[in-house]
Amino acid sequence: MARIRPFRPGDEPALADICLKTADAGHDATGVFDDDRVWAEIFVLPYVARHPDLAFVVETDDGRVAGYIVGAPDTHAFEDWFHDEWWPERGAAWPLPAAERSRQDGTLIYAYGRRGGAEPYGDEYPAHLHIDLLPELQGEGWGRRLIETLVAALRARGVTGLHLAAASENEGALAFYPRVGFRPLESHPGVQAFGMRL
User: Fold this and answer.
1) How many angstroms separate the CA atoms of 106 and 164, rounded?
2) 127 and 91 Cβ atoms separated by less than 8 Å
């Protein structure tokens, strides 16, 4: 039987693989970028580096990690840390593009522009999350259970709100988040943000 457990060092390669396999609006993004590593270096690995205590995984009965949730309790502080400490070292492999000519360029421009206060949701909903499940776990309640696990951990810290953003074309995600207590927020083109008061 699969189970949720806390993240532990050594899970990073599995998390990077899950991130890649779900990064294209819930589908496999292998080959979408020139370098598949970009996805995880932006969307999952910084979270387990900064807040390993707010990272949880679904481990299958054969010992594989097939899903995760990661979070940051203070988005402003996390984004400043990403900009000042995490990305300068990692981003050296991928210089800031002069223009957005590809999806990888757009994602790198986003990464270079991350800093506290760049998103409007961080004041009312200070925490944010990323969650991904391989197809074998989808539709079995693991997403709801991962969110409940993270919410409990955030509430224990006194965090008052949580937000996330999903690609507008990710229909499964757009249907899922309202069912687990999130409400839609005013959003940028191409994404739909959601918030939950804790």
Assistant:
1) 19
2) no
Task: Supply 5's token pair.
Answer: 């457990």
Taking 90 as the threshold, does the pLDDT of residue 129 lie above it? Answer: yes
pTM, entire model: 0.95
3-state secondary structure of 22: helix
Q: Are 160 and 20 in contact (CB under 8 A)?
A: no
The H-assigned helical ranges of 23-165 are 37-43, 45-50, 75-81, 87-90, 103-113, 142-156
Q: Which residues does 50 contact at the CB level (< 8 Å), separation at least 6?
A: 72, 78, 81, 86
2: nearest Cα among 47, 59, 52, 40: 59
Distance between CA atoms of residues 131 and 54, nearest Å:
12
